[in-house]
Fold Molybdopterin adenylyltransferase.
Amino acid sequence: MGQQAKIGIVTVSDRASAGVYEDISGQAIRDTLRDYLVSDWQAEYRLVPDEQPQIEQTLKDLVSEGCCLIVTTGGTGPAKRDVTPEATEAVCDRIMPGFGELMRQESLKYVPTAILSRQTAGLLGSCLIINLPGKPKAIRQCLDAVFPAVPYCIDLMEGPYLECNEDVIKPFRPKS
C-alpha cells in the first residue's frame, strides 16, 4: 500500500552491549511489531550502552536513515545510568507526554514499581520515538496500551501508512 516503513529498535543496556547477556528486550519489540503489523516494514536494530551521547547519536542516525518510528527499551528507571528519556528529550523537537502517562498507568496494573518509570515519547523530524521499559513482559503491556495511537500519529507526520492486524491490535484513525 505504499512505501516500506523503517522502524528503529534500540536496546539501551550496558550489560547487553558488552555481551554479558543476550538482548531479549529488543527481540521482544521485534516480535510484538511482527504481531501487530501487516504492512511491509524493515527493522533497523541497534544495541548501545547507557551513554547519553551515544543514545542521542543513534536516535539521530536512525531518523536520518528514514525511520518513521523508533522504539527504545531500557534506561528508563531512576538509576544513575538510566538516561534514555534525557537522550530522547535532548534530540526531539516536541515531546508527546501522553505516551509515557498511558504506559505508566498501564504498568501500574501489574507492578507498583511502575511509578519509578520515566518512559516518554517525542517527535524528531517526521519520526515518533517511544521509550519502553526493559522487561519483555512490560514491553508488550506498554505497546498494547499505546500502539493504537501510533499509526495515526505517523499519518499526521506524513509517514508511511502502517496497516495493523486488527485481530491483534486495533489502531484508531478518525473516520474520513
Remarks:
- The chain has a mean pLDDT of 96.
- The helical segments are 14-17, 24-36, 52-64, 84-91, 97-107, 136-146, 150-156.
